[in-house]
Amino acid sequence: MRHLRIRGWLVLLGMLLILGSLGLMSSVLSDWERVSGARQLDKLIVNANAAESKAKGLELQEAEQFSKKWPLGIAYSAAGQEKAAAGSVSVLCDVFGVSGDYSQFTSFPMRSGSTISQKAVDEHSRVAVLSERTADKLFRSRSVVGKQIKLFDTNFTITGVYADRESLLKQLSDDGIADIWIPVTAMLDVRPESRIQHMQLAVHSEGAVRAETDAVNGLRALGMNPANFRIDNEVLRYRQLAQLPKLLLFGCGTAAIYMLVRLIIRLWGEQITSFRRRRLIEEFSNIVKHKRYTLLFCIIATLAAAACTALIWQQIRFRFYIAPEWLPEELIQVSFYVDKLRSVWEQQAVQAGYVPSPQERLSDVVDLLSWRLLLIGACGIPILWTGLKWWAIRRVPVSIQLQSLFLMIPVIALVVFATVKLTGLNMRLDLTEYAVVGVFMISCVLFIHKFKGVNSLDIQDKS
Fold first, then answer.
1. Can you give the pLDDT at residue 460?
2. Which of 10, 226, 355, 405 could form a disulfide with 216 if both were Cys (CB 3.0 to 4.6 A apart)?
3. Strand 89-98 to strand 180-183: parallel, antiparallel, or no bridges (unpaired)?
4. Which of 17, 99, 52 is nearest to 382 (CA)?
5. d(C-alpha 101, C-alpha 117), whole Å
6. Which of 411, 410, 403, 408 minimizes the C-alpha distance to 384?
7. Cα separation of 374 and 26, whole Å?
């Protein structure tokens, strides 16, 4: 009994890793979209490379000139650290001077008051928007709209308080939210040495690659060296990362299709062999009469497997995307990949002192989490297979195995839901994932029993 429990825990662990990684990957990607504002991920991120001695950023006039030539929306910001003081209390804070459209590119729910408006930017207003945590530290209260704080030896009036999001992405990347936001014009007034280091450029998802070229040309038109800036294409990065849960689901789905096809071939092969043996001693009509129920079962099973295969393929098929720069002109070109890997290593060495923007840190965290969750989900497949195989060796009836699997699925769904809520992510539940993985598990059970010769499911002839 103890060994059966261990094997049951193995099956549960394998299912949890597969379904959990799928659910968490989808939730991480969904939360990435949520914290990216109304523009979501249809944007480019242009960041001054602090590792380069000449990359100090843009003047305000240069940023405004760039924004006038950019066909879609644009947001820019200057960042710095400064002590914020309220009476005798002072706190070291990350301060962002932002443009009026910044809230369209970075989501932050307001608890009270209003955010930085375009009017405040145009009028160089000395206003500030604080996070709830900063308001608590300075005033021991969150009802602070209308009060004043001192920044850069200048008084700023608080016009709003926004909520801190204690999500997993925020904890790992600080997800682009500063402690205090002020108009970028006011920041450059009180701190003239500041430069605009980060820009977010709205793009059409269909023209994301062409938009990179337009951004480079725009920097050149300002007299800037594009090599001193890093351009991160959020559209293409999301397109690549969104494939990862689909890739894991594709692996489970194709394995299920393979096993279903093998089972049907095996089923018909056994019936054809039996038919040929009986044909030596019986008439054709008698054989058909005696095996009519078996033949009917085979036909129904074949039609059901064909319908299931078609539905699975419809759900798992997707167009795999590979970045154009990773596609060689010839199919087999070893030198291309050697040069590509060398350029990646050189780029990492050059950017050893590079300071990413908050949005880039967020993207890097999503990238890291997605790939690790894909690896975890892939590890769940052999664990599940091992547990099911041990069940078969111990001759656990197929019906008991299937009942156990279906009882485990809602438990796993609750665990995934609780994990997503505890990490503060944006829950995304896809029933298609559960359906495909469910068919995969059923196929594994039938396949192992049929091809390992344990608890054979052969249909007995009715004579």
1. 39
2. 226
3. parallel
4. 17
5. 8
6. 408
7. 11
